[in-house]
Amino acid sequence: MTVARRWGTLTTAALVVALAGCAGASTPFVSTPVVEPQSWTQLALPDGFTASTLLLLNGQLVVGGSEAGGPDGDGQPAFFATGGSGSTAFTPVPVAPESFYGARTLWFSVISDGSQIFALGGKTGGGHGNPRWTTWAGDLAGVVEDPAPGIEVFGGWGAGGLAGMAVVNGQPVIVGGHASSQPGLDIAVWLHQGDDWVRQSSDATALAATGDVLPFPTAVAVEESELVIAGFAQHLGGGKVWDAAAIWVGGQAGPWSRIDLPGDAAASSAQAVSCDGERCIVTGEADGALVAWTFANGTVASIPIPVLETTDRDVLASVTWGGRTTLVAPGGVATSTDLNTWSLHAGPSGTPIAATSSGSILYVLTSDADGSVRLWSAAG
User: What one-character-per-residue DSSP string does 209-270 give?
Assistant: First the structure.
C-alpha cells in the first residue's frame, strides 16, 4: 500500500511527534512524524495453520484461524494458545463443531469476558452462496459450537450481514443488520436466550432506518453495561448520498441514541471500537486516512493522530501497550500516553489484520501480498 512504501523510505531517527492541533479540531492530525526504530520478532505459528484473530485470555495468547484438513480438505476451524508467562510455544485448544457448516467455519468475531471464549463463525454455502453463521462458546479447555441457529436467524430474506459479538452483563450479544417493517436495513441486536438467539425490535429506535438516514454497523464493544456500536450513517437527500461516521449507544434492550462523530471529511466511517471502563476509542477512515475519536460520559471528540493512509479493511481497534494507547496501521504503530503527543514506530512487514497486547508485549498479525499470514511481537 502507499503508506507502507512511504514510511519504508524514512530513516530510523527517533522523534516524539508534537501536537499540531487540539482534540475536536476539524483536522485531527499531528505534524508529519519520523518513525522511531522498533524491533519486531516473528513468532512461529503451527504448521498448516493460517491465523486470522488474536485474543488474550488469562495471560495467554490465543490465536484463531483455519487449520489444514477438514471434511473437504480445505481447512477447519482451530484455536492455539501459548502457555503464558512469556511462552511462545503454541498448543491446540480443542474445537468441537456440531453442524455441517460448523466443521467448515471461518472465524469472524472472537471475544472473551475474561474467562470464556465466545466466537462467531461463518462459511458461505447453498445455492445462493449466503453466509451460514455458527456461534461458539468455551475456554482454554475447549470451544464447542452452540446448536446451529438456522439460516433464518441471522440470514434469510431480511439478512443484512453481521458486525460482531460482545459480552454485556455476562450475556453474549451479536450485532448486525436486518430488514424491518420500514424500507432499508436496521441495526439489529440479537440476545442469547437459552439455546436461541433472539432479535430485538429496532422499530422506533435510533437503530432503525428512516427515509433520509440508513444505519450501517461495523463493530461493537461494551462500556460498563452499554453497547457501543461503531459504523456509519448513510445520509440521503438533496440529490446526493454521503456516509458519515457514527456510533450508537444503548443497553441490551435500549434506549438507543445515535451520536455523529465530528469531522469535515467528504466520506467517513467508524470501523472499530475498544473500551476500557473509562472511555472508548473509536477508529475509522475518513477520505482515505486513519482517524480516531474518544467517547466518554456521553461526549465524543476527535483525537489528533499522525497522518496514516488506510482503507476501511485495514482499520483495527486500539490496544493498550505498556500503558499507552496504541493504533496499529499499515504505515506504522502510533502510541500515546495522553492522546495528545504521539510517537510513531516502524511496524512489521505486511498489512496488519489483528492486534492485541499483554503488558509490554504487542502482538500483530499481518498478511503479505501472497496471502500468507505472519505473527509478530514487539516489546515496548
Answer: --SSEEEEEEEEEEETTEEEEEEEEEEEETTEEEEEEEEEEE-TT--EEEEEPP---SSEEE
Contact 333, 344 (CB under 8 A): yes
The answer to whether 226 touches 250, Cβ cutoff 8 Å, is: yes
* Location of C-alpha cell 500500500: 1
Distance CA 90, CA 80 (A): 6
List, edge to edge, every strand of the sheet that includes 299-302. Answer: 268-275, 280-286, 289-296, 299-302
| Amino acid occupying residue 69 | G
Neighbours of 45 (CB within 10 A): 17
Name residue 334's amino acid: A
| Share above pLDDT 90 across residues of the chain, in percent, rounded to a whole number | 72
Residue 93: closest CA among 51, 164, 141, 59: 141
Q: Contact 219/164 with Cβ under 8 angstroms?
A: yes
- Residues 291 and 268: their CA atoms lie apart, in Å, by 9
**What gap in Å lies between CA 283 and CA 294, rounded to an integer?**
9
Write out pLDDT tens, residues 281-325.
999 999 999 999 999 999 999 999 998 888 888 999 999 999 999
Paired strand residues for 352: 366
Contact present, 294 and 339 (Cβ < 8 Å): yes
Question: What's the pLDDT at 151?
Answer: 76
Distance, CA of 251 to CA of 254 (rounded, Å): 5
**Are the C-beta atoms of 66 and 77 separated by less than 8 Å?**
yes
Among 64, 45, 91, residue whose Cα is nearest residue 375: 45
- 282 is written with which cell numbers? 473509536
Q: What is the mean pLDDT of the chain?
A: 88
pLDDT given at position 85: 63
Q: Look up residue 150 and give its three cell numbers.
A: 438456522
Q: How far apart are the first and last CA of the chain?
A: 26
Q: What pLDDT, in 10s, does the model give residues 338-354?
A: 999 999 999 999 999 99
The reported pTM is 0.90
